[in-house]
Every structure is written in C-alpha cells, then in structure tokens.
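In the laboratory, one determines a bound structure by crystallizing the protein with its ligand and collecting diffraction data. In a computational setting the workflow is compressed into a single prediction: the sequence and the ligand go in, and a structural description comes out. We illustrate the idea with iron/sulfur cluster.
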Amino acid sequence: MTSRHAHLLAPLDLGFTQLKNRVIMGSMHTGLEDRFYHYNKLAAYFAERARGGVGLIVTGGISPSRQAWLMPFGGTLNSILDLPNHRKLTRAVHQEDGKILMQILHPGRYGYQPFLKSASAIKSPISKFKPRAMTEADVEQTICDYVRCAKLAQKAGYDGVEIMGSEGYLLSQFLCLRTNLRTDQWGGPIENRMRLSVEIVRRVRENVGPNFILMYRHSVLDLVEGGNNWEEVVIVAKAIEQAGATIINTGIGWHEARVPTIVTSVPRAAFRSLAGRLRKELSIPVVASNRINMPDEAEDIIASGDADLISMARPFLADPEFVNKVAQGRVDEINTCIACNQACLDHTFSMKRASCLVNPRAAYETELVYRKTQQKKRIAVVGAGPAGLSAATVAAECGHAVSLFEGSDRIGGQFNYAMRIPGKEEFSETLRYFRRRLEVTGVEVHLQRRVTQAELLQQGFDEVIIATGIVPRMPRIDGIDHPKVLSYLDVLKDSAPVGRRVAIIGAGGIGFDVGEFILHDPAVSLPLSLDLWLGEWGVDLVSQTNGGLCAPTPETPQRTVWLCQRKAGRLGTMLGKTSGWVHRATLQRKGVHMLGGVEYVKIDDLGLHILQDGVPRVLEVDTVIVCAGQDSLADLMPSSPLAQGPRFHLIGGAAQATELDAKRAIRQGAELAAGL
Ligand code: FAD
Ligand code: NAP
Ligand code: SF4
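The predicted complex, in structure-token form:
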C-alpha cells in the first residue's frame, strides 16, 4: 500500500460494519436497471467495480413505487417479485468482497411520465409533464413506499440504502420554497418542509434496524432561486442525523440549475469546502462529491478533514480498477474521467444505455470482452489519435504484437488541440493514460513515421488498421486564400496570431471551442482558479443566500467575435445534451454574436461578406477562422480488397468524418481490436 494515499485507503468503522476504504462509487443511472433482462449485465458491471477495490457501491436510482417512476417501467423495487433480480447484484458484489447500497429515488416533478406528483403543482423546466400536488394521504403513502422499498432492499441482500434527497428530486422539492408552496404541516418553515425527508429516514431506520447502512444524499448547494440557505442546509442535516442516518452524502445543484456542477470546466473538487463545513456540524461521517476524479485531490480532502469519504461516480465508469491502481501505486495507469458527459449523462438524458467515452466497456462488460488471443498476430496501426490508440492498446492487451505508426512527433491526434481549449484541460489525462497504456501493453511505437502503403504490404503484418483521422475542410468561398483566413489548426496547433475582430465560419463543436479559446485572456492561467470560476458563474459558496446564486463577474472579453453557420435557427443545438448549454452560455456571456442562416459571399480586406437571411452584410473583421467540419484522410487504404497480404481496416475519422467524435473513435478502435 502507498502512504501517498493512506487516508483515502484507510478503512472506516461504522460500528456494526466496516468499509475497507474511503472511496464510494456514487449512484449513476446506466439504463440497465430499468429492464429485468439486463440485470445479469448490471451484476457484471458492479462486480467488476467491486473487484477493482472500491469501498462502497451505490446503485442507480430505484423507484419505491410505480407513482415514483422516473420513466415508464423504470427500475422499481416494490414487490418480492423484484427480489431475484436485485439478489443478482448483491451476490455479485459480495462475491468480490464489496459492499453495495441501493439508492431509493422518487423523482417528483422530474419524472418523464404523465402521473407525476410533487410538493406543489409547479412544472419543472426539464420535464414536459406537470405534477399534481400531493395530498396528505399521498405524502403518507410515499413514506410507506420508502419503508417498504428499504425493507425489500434489506431482503435482497443490500448492505444499506441511500435516500436521494438532493439534485432537485422529490425530497428537494419538499425542502425548498422554490417548489413547495404548501400551507399544511409539509410546507412553510424549514421545520415543516424537511418533515418528509426526516420522517422517511426515521421510519426506514425503525423498520430496518440498527445494522443497515442508511446514507442520505443532502443538497448542500441548490444553485437555484428559491433554494435553501446554509443555515437551512445545516438544520436539515442535523435532523437527518437525529432521525437515524449512518452517513450524509453531499449533493450539489439541482438538475435544472443554470450553473454547471460536473462538466469538465468545473474546477476539480470545487465544492469540497461545503462538505468540510457540514462535517463540523455533525457527528456522523460526511461524504464529499462532484468533480473529484483523481486520487491526489481525494486524499487531500480526507487528510485535511473536509470529509470522511469521497464519492466518485463517473470515474468508475472510466476505470473500474481505480482503487486497486491507487493501492498498488499505479496512479499513472488510471483512465481518468474527463467529465465530458458524452457517453454517460448525455446517453441517460437521451434514454440510451450509459457508457464511457474513454472506456467503451463500461456497462458493456459482458459484450465487449478483451480476451487473450489463441492466435497471436502481427498488427500495424497507422495513426495515434484516439481511434488508433484505442485499437493498438486493446489489440496488445489481447496478446497481439502491435506496431503503432504516427506521422507527428506525439501521440494523441486532435486531442492535443482539444486539451488547449479553456475548460478542457482534463483531455490531457486521456493522453497520459494512453501513453502509459502503450508501455504497459508493450505496443511498439514509431513517432514521426509516415508509412506508405507499400511498406505496410511488405512488412508481413496480418492486419493493418488505418486510423489516420481527418483533414480540416476548406470551403469554397471567394477569397478563402486571403491572408486573414486561418484554419482552426493554424490557431490551435501553430498558434497563428489572431486579430481583435474575428469571424468564425462553422458553429460545430470546434467552432464553439475556438470561440472560447480566442476569447480567453492569455494572462489568466488555466485551468481557471476556483475563485475566478465562481465569479464567472455567480456562485456564493459562503453565505448561500438564494440557493448560492449571486451576480456573476465574468472575464472581460478579449475580442469581438461573430460565430456563423449556414443552417437557420439557434446555434449549438447539436452540442452535448448536458454540456452544450454551458458552451452556449459561456459565449453569450462574452458577447459573441451568433449568426444562423448565413450565406458566405466573399472574404476581402474589409472582412467577411455574408447574406444573412438574404440581406447583405459585411462583418468587418481582421481574422476569419474556418471551422467548417472535416474530411476523412484514408489514402493508405487499398482501393479494392487485396487477394493476398494483410487485411486492412478503417476506423475513426479516417472511416467517416461526419459526426465524428472521440466516443465513436475510441469505441470503434476497441471493438475492432477485440474481434481480431
Ligand atoms: P485524429 O485524432 O485526427 O488522429 C489521427 C492521427 O493520425 C493523427 O495523430 C495524425 O498525425 C496521424 N496520421 C495521419 N496520417 C498519417 C500517416 N500517413 N502516417 C502516420 N500517422 C498519420 N471529440 C469529442 O468527442 N469531444 C470533444 O470535446 C472534442 N473536442 C475537440 C476539440 C477540438 C479543438 C478538436 C480539434 C477536436 C475535438 N474533438 C472532440 C474531436 C476528436 O478529437 C476527434 O473526433 C478524434 O480525435 C478523432 O480521432 P481519430 O483517431 O479518428 O483521428
Ligand atoms: P461539425 O460539428 O460537423 O461542424 C461543422 C460546422 O461547419 C457546422 O457548423 C456546419 O454548419 C459548418 N459547415 C460544414 N460544411 C461547411 C461548408 N462547406 N462551408 C461552410 N460551413 C460548413 O464539425 P466540427 O466542429 O469540425 O467538429 C468535429 C467533430 O468533433 C464533431 O463531430 C464533434 O462531435 C466533435 N467535437 C465535439 C465537441 C464536444 O464538445 N462534444 C467539441 C469539439 C468537437 P453549416 O453547414 O450549417 O454551416
Ligand atoms: Fe467521464 Fe466522459 Fe466517461 Fe462520462 S463519458 S464517465 S464524463 S469520461
């Protein structure tokens, strides 16, 4: 065991049971919990993480009744008929010497089904269904549902339950004046608004006995108008402790909050101080959460006394072996969650199975298997971008002899430019992971090596994987070769000078990113400090009046920017479901002019001449940056299948540039390599 992370790896004695370390895998909805026929897959998913050493696992949210469905037929535990499925999960985790809690979740007005009930009949901005206000009988029934669900969870073999009281779900809806306008014993002062949470904890404890973990997830920062202040946060936490909770987990921000809480641009461990303040008020263990993704921060939080436990959720999608790697001093081998949300939360909010951009096996443990090969092959991979790195490392892990050829002087492809974008610094962790993974799996890496097709044919490879990526597209516009025109690579790769007034052609992911890049003040170092970030978004961590919101103090924009697209309508609609709004809000705050329905006429000394909705306009700019998508680069691919010699495969951007992202590139590489 390393002493560097001694606090994180120390056991925690809860009296009736012991957690083997301070790391909790926080609750995440994968989609597998919603269908009975997916429970074997879910069991394999949890077992892999228990085997990886995590101290305590929390399942995705399970509804205590049908009325509490998150979506029609979503995961529910309300009858003994559900027990066999849940026992698959508890058995699988216990066989790996792990511990698992089941999260009980009532969405209230956040459900995606028409029979919603909440504290008051106030529609949420994130569900199209309006809830009915619960009657007193409904409230009493809800408490009984929680109790029945917790008792069933105990029967199913869970080590405890987590009661979800944050993120804007039902219990938050009762706790805050924003959504609780009741005048009966469940509304009004905080003592009434917290009655539902407290009664649930009290009666669950009464029914499950003392030797069952009862963790309560408590919102310590609502980040919505009409949210609770710090004094109220503490009153609720103390009452929950009194009612019989074993552990208080902390939650940050309602889902409808317009302040990001977990995307890449949120500074690491941004909210740890709140766990620290709450811990001083309580005598039961407190958990810190949100944007903690590496062990050094986690260790520091425990060592400094800010929390007793650390909850990390997405980092366990990215790397099920996280804790074992820490314990064995292999921190540089951790596949770090880059907080992109692309394959996890974006999937969940699109009703698709969650997975992970950097680990396509997540929630596919039984389907994407990296088996040791019986027939070792010689494999060439050309291109060390995300697609090639994924293919090369998986093929080598399966036991093949892999040679990786990269034309430039470094691995990473376009990720080298992505990580230069303010707020995307985490992307460098993926390159650190792959760099180390190439060493561990024994891939032979050839940098600055542009192989020809003839060489690939001559060197006796059995398989050749072409992962040469893309070339930026240069649209045909009169004056496109004017000296004021740059491609995004000129700016991000070659640091070409950019003027004060800039037009960006193309408003895809890269157009938005380039906007953020050129608007950032180079004198301000990245990643942004916590204080600057709190100021940007208007967050008051200290007094927390009004749910923690205060007036923002944004960075002064460095330039005047026009972001253009040909499509009519709002810009950025194809950005990530859970992160796109953050990019849009950032650029809007910095005064970027967003133009849709643009036709590009010409570029000259005056600037960019356009027709916007048919009306001529000149954007008087000194630089035009082209971010107009990409075309595949696949010139090493034989034009027709070869009669003999190696089999050729095409992956990533080289295979298809349209709608390419790293999620597709990495999954494609892994799937191909696992099947060779
Ligand atoms: P590339 O990354 O293009 O890699 C191809 C590699 O092949 C390069 O290293 C190249 O040097 C090498 N190569 C080319 N020809 C040869 C040859 N003949 N011989 C040897 N080597 C060769 N995606 C996301 O999912 N999320 C994001 O947030 C995101 N942000 C981005 C931000 C920016 C600024 C940019 C530029 C891209 C971003 N992307 C993002 C896109 C993502 O980086 C790409 O989808 C991904 O890199 C594609 O991977 P690839 O391996 O197919 O190609
Ligand atoms: P993109 O998302 O396809 O956007 C290309 C942009 O260029 C669009 O705005 C498009 O809109 C415009 N365009 C296309 N052809 C054009 C032409 N001939 N002339 C002028 N404009 C043209 O591609 P990208 O921005 O280059 O990004 C590449 C990939 O990287 C994306 O698929 C994305 O998934 C990924 N990425 C993701 C993120 C993220 O945060 N998730 C960030 C960066 C990149 P019009 O056709 O309407 O003009
Ligand atoms: Fe983290 Fe992105 Fe993977 Fe989600 S998809 S777990 S945010 S790396």
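The mean pLDDT is 96. Keep in mind that any predicted model is a hypothesis to be tested, not a measurement.
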